[in-house]
Structures are given as structure tokens and as C-alpha cells.
Design a protein that fits this description.
Length: 473
């Protein structure tokens, strides 16, 4: 973007603003000049499978990344876990000042179904300004953009403007089973002031965004049993209890028809949004009519008075994922089933914890239907970084400088990611700044990333590190 567009921006004092704009112009120019080289390097990286689910190529790619970071002058090493190693690179060019940790993951999803790929998943191919390959959006193209951003700063200035830690995980696509433990044990090597993750898609209009949090999640199963076998509903109906009714009644005590979750103490730790969060939520664009139209709905879920993003960011949910038992085939079968199952998930918001809510649901089940078995499945805590964090201003300025657009600020996303390992275990603010297009088709055939967005990602990464470096002055 032309520098003039920023002249009225008041994030930094005028003199420093002019200085960093000049610095960034040089770096952006370097990135533009090396566009083809950078794309070819990404292609080389994408040719190498690294499928954590099968183990294919994992060691090779971990070594490849360690080599990249070492060549950039990082103290780079592979950090073992009981599963795949993490790649850790550290470069401290500005001792005593800000350290940013850039997180990403080098493992990719399996490419199946192979026959649905237009070009093979590990033979990267450019079509219509997009690069098609497994892992290009999720997450190789995004963390490789960060690495190329660091390289570009070093090529222009020979030094990084702040201290940088790069942490690349090899098990994200398996649900990150070891990262919490790893971060708990290696806090001394990971001492940073903030974490930035570039993962996930941008909105359809490509407007940049910063995500400040995610909802947590727990999953559980309820199992109810009646007689020791299915029986005739005429011969035994009224004598033998029906486990499906047991579950229906139990589930009915968990949530009312107005949409309130009615388990004791469930909302105790739910935080009301701050004024800043309310303002940010109100600014997020959403066409509620269009969403309803696309989903074939006449109205959203109860309670109806909540706004779209308030629902996703500020409120926990209880979802029945499935309710099974008895007969659901064609015609009728007058059976009285002997067992019934329900699978449920709960999305958690700050400052609920998975452990707290597991315990509350379990206590609720014991109180209302002690004969029903309660089985815990996985859980993940929510995460939230305050919108008034002192890093918000430099990150906004950086993104504006690199993309020409103000980023949207998302207080929390509806889905769940293990961001809590940074905010709660490492204890630092965590920001997600995605680079990929909305239709990146991650986890699906024909995964792709727009080349312009890859290059914009390199510029954004370089700007974020540079503007964070300016904070010390
Ligand atoms: Zn993924």
C-alpha cells in the first residue's frame, strides 16, 4: 500500500511512524522482488509429506525445518516428546527487550480421498493464482510465511528487531496430545512476552483479523440400561423401565426450552464481556438473514435476544451430538429397548475449565439419574487474551501497514484450539493472525492457498515482528 495512507494514523508518534514506514517499505520491496523464489521454496517444502497420523515423512520434515532455522542464525533444535518432536528455534538479537513466540505446526492431515484431488496432494501445482497441495493452508504455507518474514528482515537489516522464538509442533492434527506437558516442562526455553499463531482462514472478503481467544470443549457420553435384553412393548410395557425415557428426562433437566443450561453452578465462572469486547463484537460484520437463508432457518437457537457473535464468543453451549437406542428402521417395531446412549459436548467460555464442568455435569447426573453411567471424553480449556493488551496496538499497526486494512478483532472464536497452553500454562497473551483464504479446503481434497495471500502473510509477519521491536524505543 502507499505509505501516504498511513500518515494520519496515530498509533505511533509521527517521527517513529515515518521511520518504521521507511523500514517496512524496504522489507516489502525485498519480499516482492523475491516473490517467485519464496513460492518455489514453499513448493519444495510442500513436496515433502509429513503426516502425523501415519508417521510418513515426519522426521525428515522436522530436520528440514531445523535446517532452515539454523541457516537463519537461530539456535535450532528438535525437542523430543513421547510422539513427534517439536522444532524449536531461538534468536535473541535484542536482549532485555520483547520476545515473540511464533507457533505453527508442520504435520498435515492425511490426503485421502486421493481420487478427489485434481492434482496430487504432494505435487504442488499452481492454478488460478492458487497453490494446491496438502498442508499449504494448514499450516505449512502460514508458518513458512513467518520464517520467510524473518529471513526478509535479516536480508535487509542483518538483525531482528526483537527476540524471536519459533515453535513448530508435529502433532497438531492429532489433537496436540503432548504440547501442554511440553510447555509445562520447558517454560524456561520458551520465555516470551506474547505468542502469535498464523493458522485458520480469513473471512471471505480477505479482511485481516486478530483472534484473541477460543472456546474450550468437553465431550461426554451417557449410558442408560433397562432390562438385560430388548423386550416386547406390549408384554412388558409398564413393567420394564425404558432407558431412552431415562435419558430424555435426564437431558431435560440439563437445559430448558428458553436455552438456559440448568445444571447447578454451570454459569458460575462465565465472564461477562468487557466493554471493549462488546464494541469489537458489534463491529464484526455479519448478515444474519443470509446465514439463516443458507442454513434453511427461520430463527436462531434460544435465547433469541443474543447477537450472532455474542453467541459464539461469550456463551457456553450444551449440544446433544447423538441420541441412540431401540429401533429407527422402516415401518414400526414395538420394541422396548434395553439400553440407550447419548453423546454430548459442551463448549466452554472463559473462565470455565474442563475439569470444573466435567465435575458439575457428573454431579448433576448422579443427583438426577444415579443409575446412568457418565463417561468422560476429551476436554480442552478455553483461552482468552484481553483486548486491552499492550501488544494490540503494534499488531494492528503492523497488519494495517502490511495489508492496507484494519484487522477485525475477534474476542473469541466459537471453535476450540489448545491456545490455553500459551495463555494459562506459559502465562502470556496469545494472538491468532490467519493468512489463508476462506476456501482453503484444509482437511479436504484440493487444499489451496492464494499466492497473493501467502506473500501478504510474509509481509504481515515481517511487519508484526518489526512493530513489536519498535515498542522498546
Ligand atoms: Zn488442521
Amino acid at each position: 500500500m502507499p505509505a501516504g495512507q498511513l500518515s494520519c494514523h496515530d498509533g505511533l508518534p509521527e517521527v517513529m511512524n515515518a521511520y518504521i514506514l521507511a523500514v517496512m517499505e524496504q522489507i516489502y520491496k525485498h519480499i516482492e522482488q523475491n516473490r517467485n523464489l519464496f513460492i518455489n521454496r514453499l513448493i519444495d517444502y510442500l513436496r515433502q509429506p509429513s503426516i502425523s497420523a501415519h508417521g510418513e515423512g515426519m522426521d525428515k520434515v522436522a530436520n528440514y525445518l531445523q535446517g532452515w532455522l539454523a541457516r537463519l542464525g537461530f539456535d535450532a533444535q528438535l525437542m523430543p516428546t513421547p510422539g513427534w518432536p517439536l522444532v524449536l528455534g531461538r534468536r535473541f538479537d535484542q536482549p532485555g527487550t520483547i520476545t515473540v513466540l511464533l507457533y505453527g505446526h508442520y504435520d498435515v492431515q492425511p490426503p485421502d480421498p486421493l481420487e478427489e484431488w485434481i492434482s496430487p496432494p504432494f505435487e504442488p501445482t499452481i492454478r488460478d493464482g492458487r497453490l494446491f497441495a496438502r498442508g499449504v493452508g494448514d499450516n505449512k504455507g502460514q508458518h513458512f510465511a513467518q520464517i520467510l518474514a524473518l529471513e526478509s528482515i535479516l536480508a535487509v537489516h542483518g538483525k531482528l528487531p526483537c527476540n524471536v522464538i519459533v515453535l513448530l509442533e508435529g502433532e497438531e492434527e492429532m489433537g496436540s496430545p503432548h504440547i501442554a506437558d511440553f510447555i509445562g516442562k520447558h517454560g524456561d526455553m520458551l520465555k516470551a512476552d506474547l505468542v502469535i499463531t498464523s493458522d485458520g482462514p480469513l473471512p471471505e472478503n480477505r479482511q485481516p483479523k486478530i483472534e484473541f481467544g477460543v472456546r474450550g470443549v468437553i465431550g461426554f457420553e451417557l449410558r442408560a440400561r433397562g432390562a438385560n435384553r430388548d423386550v416386547h412393548s406390549g408384554n412388558f410395557g409398564g413393567v420394564v423401565p425404558n432407558p431412552l425415557w431415562t435419558l430424555v428426562h435426564l437431558l431435560g433437566t440439563m437445559k430448558d426450552a428458553q436455552g438456559n443450561i440448568t445444571m447447578e453452578g454451570f454459569y458460575d465462572n462465565v465472564q461477562a464481556p468487557t466493554d471493549l469486547e462488546r464494541e469489537a463484537l458489534a463491529r464484526l460484520p455479519i448478515d444474519e438473514m443470509l446465514v439463516k437463508h443458507e442454513l434453511g432457518l427461520t430463527q436462531f437457537d434460544a435465547p433469541i435476544e443474543r447477537t450472532y457473535y455474542e453467541r459464539l464468543s461469550c456463551w457456553p453451549t450444551l449440544t446433544i451430538n447423538g441420541l441412540h437406542g431401540g429401533y429407527a428402521g422402516p415401518e414400526s417395531k414395538t420394541v422396548l429397548p434395553h439400553e440407550a446412549f447419548a453423546k454430548c459436548d459442551i463448549r466452554l467460555v472463559e473462565a470455565q475449565t474442563a475439569e470444573e464442568i466435567f465435575a458439575k455435569v457428573e454431579a448433576h447426573v448422579r443427583r438426577h439419574a444415579p443409575q446412568v453411567e457418565f463417561i468422560r471424553q476429551g476436554g480442552m480449556d478455553p483461552s482468552k487474551t484481553p483486548l486491552d493488551s499492550l501488544f494490540v496496538e503494534p499488531l494492528r499497526d503492523a497488519i494495517l501497514s502490511a495489508t492496507g486494512e484494519e484487522p477485525l478483532l475477534f474476542p473469541a472464536m466459537g471453535g476450540s484450539l489448545p491456545d490455553y497452553v500459551f495463555t494459562k500454562i506459559l502465562g502470556v497473551p496469545d494472538f491468532t493472525v490467519p493468512y489463508a483464504n476462506a476456501d482453503e479446503s484444509n482437511h479436504a481434497p484440493n487444499e489451496n492457498m492464494e499466492l497473493d495471500l501467502f506473500i501478504r502473510g510474509i509481509k504481515t509477519g515481517a511487519a508484526m515482528v518489526s512493530y513489536l521491536g519498535k515498542m522498546k524505543e
